Amino acid sequence: MTNEDAKVIPVRVALRCRPLVPKEINEGCQSCLTFVPNEPQVIVGTEKAFTYDYVFDPTSEQEEVFSTAISPLLNGIFKGYHATVLAYGQTGSGKTYSMGGTYTSAQENDPSVGVIPRVIRRIFEEKEKRADSEFCLAVSYLEIYNEDILDLLSSSKDKPAISIREDPKEGIKIVGLTERQVVSAPEMVGCLELGNSARTVGSTAMNAASSRSHAIFTITLEQRRGSDKVDSVVSKLHLVDLAGSERQKKTKAEGDRLKEGISINRGLLCLGNVISALGDESKKNAFVPYRDSKLTRLLQDSLGGNSHTLMIACVSPADSNMEETINTLRYADRARKIKNKPIVNVDPRAAEMNQLKQQ
Description:
By secondary structure, the protein is an alpha+beta fold. Helix content is 32%, strand content 26%. It contains ten helices and 18 strands. Strands 2, 6, 7, 8, 9, 12, 15, 16 and 17 form a nine-stranded mixed beta sheet that branches. A three-stranded antiparallel beta sheet has the order 3-4-5, with helices on one face. A hairpin with a 3-residue loop joins strand 4 (41-44) and strand 5 (48-51). Helix 2 packs across helix 4 (115-129).
């Protein structure tokens, strides 16, 4: 371990504010957020100011979000670092839109496509440029619905049970999850479309197509470098679209929708507890409750572990949502205090071979 490997890198946070939607304008809502020009700062109401790594106001386009906040992570992936992009926010605040969770190949050159399709395009562009390495790409797509992990790429009717195992060397492993090898961008987009069509979506009073589950789209990139292709580096990119935090009186959820909402909020509460435990300086060596929910187990490496992590906090500017917006801003503010220790993920066998050769 050189000094460079043990660098501590905080979780970066990008704040994304959507424009007021017609429903809010009809209800006479005003914007309660003020953006400080040329500073990554936002002021809520009249006095509370929050500063983040990046702030995107309602006029920001998808391309700007991608090139400013996501591109640096992708450069790290080709060097062998794990990366995670996490979209968090109230229901209807634009998470699935920002992540590109409803993407279909028909929208190929549409400027409004989100993070995931842009990442796929960029990975294959970079792959073309690096002719000296051999690449092997695989994708998996899962959702956490009512605390069950469902495999979105599984073709079988009766979906197999999926369990989480922890490997001391490789971290969290998901047993029974479909991993598909892909060789081209359209093939990877096909997997994304297939998974998106299988996601659990329901209608609530706040959002006609509300995500009822947390979804994680994972791209695994293995590259073999050098003349004899022995140096193998494996990096994973997790693209996470969380379901929105929601209040029953606003979504008017009943029956199954209400149960889903309770389960979603429970997962997000556990995530909040993990972020608080990691971000609080006074609780330096306190216990971090990763095991309280499936969501936090899967994100164990992304929060306080071996990964470059970006959290996109999505908020609505409407004053009717002000309370929720402040909650999201505080949540994101705590996430910035988390320190991760990303390392280059060299294949352990290859590393051992190199050591023996040097001896």
